[in-house]
Amino acid sequence: MIANTMYKALRLPSLVIITLFLFVASCRNQDPIQITDAWIRAMPPSQTMTAGFLRIENTSPQDNALVAVETAMADTVEMHEMVYENEMMKMQPVPRIAIPAGQTAQLKPGGYHLMLFGLKSQPAENDSVFLTLYFEDQSTRIAKAFVRKTAQQEPKTQPAATE
Amino acid sequence: MIHFRSIMLMLSVTFIGGCASEPSAPAIVPGADIPKFQDYGDFGGDFQLTDHNGEVFRLEDQRGSVTLIFFGYTFCPDACPTLMSKLTTVFNMLDLPEEHPVKTLYITIDPERDSPEQMKEYLQYFSTIDVLGLTGTEDEIDDVVMQYGASYEKVEGGTAAGYLMNHSTWLYLIDQQGKLRYRFRHADEPEFVAAGLKKIFE
Ligand SMILES: [Cu+2]
Closest residue of B to A148, CA-based? Predict the structure, then answer.
C-alpha cells in the first residue's frame, strides 16, 4: 500500500519533469540552422590572413543563405570559393553562399571558405574564435570555431579508424 | 617561332585530352591506375631560381634524384596545405629507401609577396615533407612557368587581399636525368602519384 502511494506521488512530478525535458529538448532543436565543425586554420606568425571553415545545415522548408561574417579577431571577413577548372585553381570572393531548404552548405578546404584578413592577433592552435554569421533571412548566429592546422578529415586515403 | 607554335599545339592537345578524360573515375582494373609516362617534347628542362634559404637553386644540380614540382603561392591558405598533406600521404605509402631520394619543389607564382623568408616560414610551418620553396624575379618565374606549360593570372580588386592569383595545379614529375616524365592532375589520387614515383625508380 505504501509503495503504491509513493508510486502515485512520484508519478505526477516525474511526468511533469519528462514533459518539461521534452519541451526544452524540442526548443533546442527548433533552430532550423545548425552550425557544426567550425574551424580556423592556424598560420605561421608573419601571415596576416587565414581561412575559416564550417558546415551549415538548414532544416527549415525555406531557402536561406550566408551573406556576411564578422569576427573580432580580423578586420575583414570575406566569403570565397575555390574553383578547379581545366587544371586551373581560382579563388574568388562570392556575395552569398546558398543554403537551400533541407540542405547543408559545406565550407571546407578546396571549396567554399571564409577568408579572414587583417588579423589582430595570430590565432594559436587549439584557441577558439567567435564568428558572427549573418543570414539572408535577417537572422544572426554566433559560432565558436577552433584553431587547427589541418582539417580533421584528411584525404580519404587515410586508413579507416578502428571503430 | 616554331618553338612557340609547338607549345601552342601542345597546349591545345592537352586541353582536348583533359576534357575527354575528366572526371577520372576510380580505376577498378588492377594496373590501370599507373601513370603512362609521356614525351613532353620541348616542355620542362633546367632552370635557375632562388631557394627559400636565399641560395641559388639549379635544377641541373638535382641529377640522380627524382623531383616533383608544383606552382602556387603562400597567400593561398587552402590548396597548398591540402597538396602538402596529399604528398605526405604519398610518401608514407611509398616508404622510399634512402638511395631513392625525391625532392619536392614549390615554385611561387607570386614573387611580389613570396620572399625567400616568407616561403621558408610558411613551408616549415605546414609541410610534413622535405619541400624547397623557390622564388625569383617575375621574369625568372615567367620563364619557368612557360617552360613547363604552367600558367597563372593575377586578379586585382574585389578583395581585401588586394589581388589573388589563379594558377595551374599540375604536379610535375622529373626523372633522374632532369627530364619531364609526367604531369599529375589536381584530382589524381595519392595512390596514383605514388604509383608514378614507384615506376620511375624501376
Ligand atoms: Cu580564399
Answer: B126
Partner-chain contact A47 B124, CB within 8 Å: no
Residue B27 lies in a domain: no
Round the average pLDDT of chain B to a whole number and report it.
83
- Predicted structure pTM score: 0.78
The position carrying cell 609547338 is B6
Could you tell me if B172 and B43 are in contact, meaning their C-beta atoms sit under 8 angstroms apart? no
Q: Which of residues 98-127 of B touch A (CB under 8 A)?
A: 118, 121-122, 124-126
| Domain of B170, in residue numbers | 4-21+34-200
Q: How many domains does chain B have?
A: 1
Is residue B28 included in any domain, yes or no? no
Cα A76 from Cα B159, distance rounded (Å): 10
* pLDDT number for residue B130: 86
Tell me if ipTM is over 0.85.
Answer: no
Distance between Cα B142 and ligand 1 center (Å):
24
For residue B8, tell me if it sits in a domain: yes
Q: Does A56 share its domain with A14? A: no
Report yes or no: B58 at the A interface, CB cutoff 8 Å.
no
A21: containing domain: 1-30
3-state secondary structure of B93: helix
Strands A140-148 and A33-41: parallel
Banded pLDDT at A123 (limits 50, 70, 90): confident
The pLDDT tens digits of the residues spanning A35-89 come to 999 999 998 888 889 999 999 999 999 999 999 999 999 999 999 999 988 899 9
Residue B26 domain flag: no
